[in-house]
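Supplementary Methods S3. Complex input for the guanosine-5'-diphosphate-bound model.
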Amino acid sequence: MSKKQKIKSRKPEWASGTKSKGFNSTVVDGVLQTKKKSILKKTTSNKLSINDFVKGVLNDNRTVLAQAITLIESNSSKHIEKAQEVLGKILHKTGKSIRIGITGAPGVGKSTFIESFGTYLCNKGHKVAVLAIDPSSSRSRGSILGDKTRMEKLSREPNAFIRPSPSGGTLGGVAHKTRESIMLCEAAGFDIIIVETIGVGQSEITVRSMVDFYMLLILPGGGDELQGLKKGAVELADAIAINKADGDNLKTANFTKEQYKQAVHYLLPATEGWETKVFTCSGLNEQGIKEFWNLIIDFEKDTKKSGVFEARRKEQTLDWVYAMVEESLKNQFYGNTKVEKKRIEIDKKLLEGKITPTNAVNELMKMYFE
Ligand code: GDP
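Predicted complex, serialized as structure tokens:
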């Protein structure tokens, strides 16, 4: 890799000027709205103006919404600038949804549960957007969440919009794009946003940092399951659902529920003033869906009353911005050619014990600010 390429590759994915392959995900056809023919025609030629995007998103034109998300997912500087202009113009229409994170290991039944839950909400007149964060696709470009055809029934609901995880990029980059996609979906009038991820490492914390309510789906299991439990994952959750509580699993599921109930009692709650709820459900048989929704209604009511809801939203926005500031500073430092040259010399002195670590930092910073 040439030095120039190296420096460029150190730019954050969201930073303007990042040279890239451009669009990195495909557009999922939404529900076509034939009335808006003029916009649709232009969509195919990918020549939508900023106002076309804004108008299309605000009118909930699904094709334009999908295109706007694709614009956001692009890493090309031209697209990033355009996307920011679009977001600026829809900003006043964002923030009005309830954002729900759902996590769980592959095969636990996330897509089946979300399909039942989403369909239930659509039938109640809600508009539901499902966005996915798939850390596997950032690392290997293979995808655990996105490859199979998921939630077919829900995708046919006129009030539902499903978008797979953007492929490629770092988890941070994918998360950033998902947050901006949430904004677009809210501006299009979706009042329920579901962010789905598999429970792997950092992705759980990432999803927690962008949702109001966070649920962990687990399988019925004995005591071993509880012992192997990652305390951290449970401490992030506002609710823990023991899924597939049907047929032969029912008894074990109830047993697991009681064990988790006891366990959460000793853990810090994820949300101030809200006791983590544990319940059983069957996404397949549509059981526990209504109860889950009632839980969220209670949560929203309680946390809005106490101010915790609003405080978390504000904190999340500030954290997002300063995480980007930090990333940007880091990238500028490592991308600085003077620093890069000086590093070889300083690293050598440091490793030979000729300079203290603190003085190595001082010299590098001096070089950076010169
Ligand atoms: P995901 O990988 O977490 O999205 O899991 P899926 O929703 O794709 O489900 C994985 C498998 O578990 C599929 O074969 C489903 O039919 C099955 N499954 C999902 N939910 C349930 C459930 O509530 N009960 C039972 N018995 N099976 C389920």
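The longest strand covers residues 98-104. Residues 1-9, 16-45 have pLDDT under 50 and may be disordered.
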